[in-house]
Amino acid sequence: MTQPEQHGTTDSITDVRGLRVGHARVAGDKALSGTTVVLAPVGGVVAAVDVRGGGPGTRETDALDPRNVVRRIDAVVLTGGSAYGLDSAAGVMAWLEERHRGVRVGPDPSHVVPVVPAACVFDLGRGGDFTARPDASTGRAAVEAADASGDHARVETGAVGAGTGAVVGGLRGGVGTASTVLESGITVGALVVVNAVGSAVDPATGALYGSYYDGGRPSFPGAAVHEAAVRRLAAAREAAAPPPLNTTLAVVATDAALTRAQAQKVAGTAHDGIARALRPVHLMNDGDTVFALATGARELPEGPGPLALNEVLAAGADLVTRAIVRAVLAAPGGRRGPGGDFPSYSELYGTRSETYSR
Question: Can you give the pTM of this predicted structure?
């Protein structure tokens, strides 16, 4: 395993200079969904995507194929609401158009078409109202929150934005993030929305699979605690109707100057980070999708040639794993309601300080 050299200042994706993150939640007592936007700096970023799940819900991902014409994008949308929630990207498009940001298609600066790739997770009905899902107004609220956050702002994690109604293996999921500064000085960051049918927890011990890659050593929960957690989680899963559906989304970003093909490789390798932290992954009813963004502020080291990309590839996968751990640990206390019974990891096993030792 490759260990990061050091965490970024905020240990979040916003340590990649110029990137901002905003969350918005669908209003209503029975609503449990929302949208998260990763906003690029003016001028956009090189972007790519890799989809491994068999049941993805996406928008504008074909535009990111290195063979196609779009060279840079201005925002990525991660949203709840399944395919309905992809409407949230329209609100982000409108906000960008008002600022003349997008692909120029005419002589006037206002003649632009913003390309806003988006991907969704399934959280329909988690709060009890199947029709409570993100729309264009939710997307606009999220991008406005991102714009207002400022550079290097700390990113809220847990049950926020697209992770508001997230569930992972019957536990509450959510948003997580992490970053590192490599020996070369290049910064890499990751943001995830964890909403998987697979589990983040080793059934034999209660330890989080990803904790082995989180810079610490798990001190496994006691047998009695683990047995009680297994019983509670089994009861919650049995009561779930319908069974929770899924998808894990991630954005891996760097300030390195990458080609679109190199960014594509980063997106693909980052899926390894999901596979380390969740089991199983990439099934036919998953929509697992990873975006890669590159701002181009720093050149890759010249000496290793094409192999210079390796440190970014390794860091991206490690950071996705670490961000998944953080999402699970940041999930608030369990939620019981008409949409289901979803305990949190901390509710079953205690806080990180109680469960893990460095």
Answer: 0.93
